Amino acid sequence: MASQQDIVLHWYPQSPYAQKIASILNYKKLQYKTVEISVMEPRPLRRPLDGGYTKTPILQIGNQVFCDSKSIISELEARYPEPSLYPVTSSGHSSKTLAFGVTHLLDTSVFMAIPTQFDLELLPKALLEDRAKMAGRSFDPAAQKALQPFLRLELQAQLGRLTQGMQHGKGWILNTATPSDTDFSLYMITFFMNMVIGEPWVTEHYPILTDHFERMQPFAQPDRTYDMADISAEDALQIAKDQQSVPAIQSVGAQDLLRIGQQVSVTPMDTGKTPAIGELVALTPQRVTIRTRDDRTGDVYVHFPLTAFLVVPVKARL
Ligand SMILES: N[C@@H](CCC(=O)N[C@@H](CS)C(=O)NCC(=O)O)C(=O)O
After folding, report:
1. Total structural domains in the chain?
2. Residue 89 lies inside a defined structural domain of this protein
3. Which residue ranges does the record assign to the GST N-terminal domain (predicted)?
4. 192 lines ligand 1 (CB under 6 A)
5. Is residue 277 within 8 Å of residue 25, measured between CB atoms?
6. Which of 9, 19, 55 to mutate to test the pocket of ligand 1 (most atoms within 8 A of CB)?
7. Cα–Cα distance between 194 and 190 in angstroms, integer?
8. Within a domain: residue 49?
9. pLDDT tens track of the chain, all 318 residues?
């Protein structure tokens, strides 16, 4: 292992998922660097680090790169367990299973209901085309505008159910003494709604969400992210090259399906279905790790969660 590995968040500030990860880095009092990337593809200088994965954020630690917030969070929690994102509940049980369920709901169904409220006519055409490609369908701004009030009813139905057990001024979603992963996801949801629909609407209709968002501020410390050194994409590649290490992961199972050393593709199963391709170096029940190589970076190990990702030998790509 390299003795000192820099943590580098590849983000753009408008990305709710990137804000979630930045807030967790801040909560865990970690020192990190940021690379501000473009809000859309192409990102040629990110490619040597992500193997082809196109979503945001990714977290680089030396020459190890973690893709998708699930893999980023599990790595951060393993390396820096305190303060934990999975505190025990008031009844003394682990919050992990609950966090998996409610965070999943927030990150999928609730999250996807929010961009329906964008005024697509105001977005740059190139960005719209990029997001249509990511979603795997075309966008019709006029049709979306006509449907918007009806789609808002659906969003409000979800928010109404979500907030029914919350208490104003106190408590965390999973009944823990300190915020859990799920509170950071809800923070991200409110951040996203404030950006898309506007803070006054959110506060008028869901004062409980604004209250939760405000109570999260001292933990998430959004201003602290800007105190971190912002480096160039080239500097991030150099960090990978200078800080070479081999991950110590014991592969478990599935050897009958996938062979260590073979070329595999790793593809998100929801949106942004662009495969990352590399040599399979490790597979565990929760994680897949591939290796890519580039003159600018040396070996890069790219880690993905297995939940919501499909790993197949390259010949049988999705
Ligand atoms: N499942 C992913 C979702 C990440 C995601 O959807 N990110 C959005 C930005 S918040 C994205 O990648 N947008 C397209 C892009 O940045 O090119 C995660 O948990 O990290």
Report:
1. 1
2. no
3. 5-84
4. no
5. no
6. 55
7. 6
8. no
9. 446 899 999 999 999 999 999 999 999 999 999 999 999 999 999 999 999 999 999 999 999 999 999 999 999 999 999 999 999 999 999 999 999 999 999 999 999 999 999 999 999 999 999 999 999 999 999 999 999 999 999 999 999 999 999 999 999 999 999 999 999 999 999 999 999 999 999 999 999 999 999 999 999 999 999 999 999 999 999 999 999 999 998 888 777 899 999 999 999 999 999 999 999 999 999 999 999 999 999 999 999 999 999 999 998 545
Dist. CA 55 → ligand 1 center (Å): 4
**Is 37 within 8 Å of 85 (Cβ atoms)?**
no
User: Residue 112 belongs to what domain range?
Assistant: 96-218
Q: Is residue 42 helix, strand or coil?
A: coil
Return the residue whose CA atom lies nearest to atom 3 of ligand 1. 68
Two structure tokens written together for 225: 């992210």
CA pair distance 63, 181, nearest whole angstrom: 26
Q: Provide the angle, in degrees to the nearest 10, between the axes of the packed helices 181-196 and 207-220.
A: 120
Q: CB under 8 Å to 242, separation ≥6 — which residues?
A: 2
Residue type present at position 160: G
CATH code of residue 114: 1.20.1050.10
For residue 40, the ligand 1 atom closest to its alpha carbon is 17
Assess contact for 291 and 281: CB atoms under 8 A.
yes
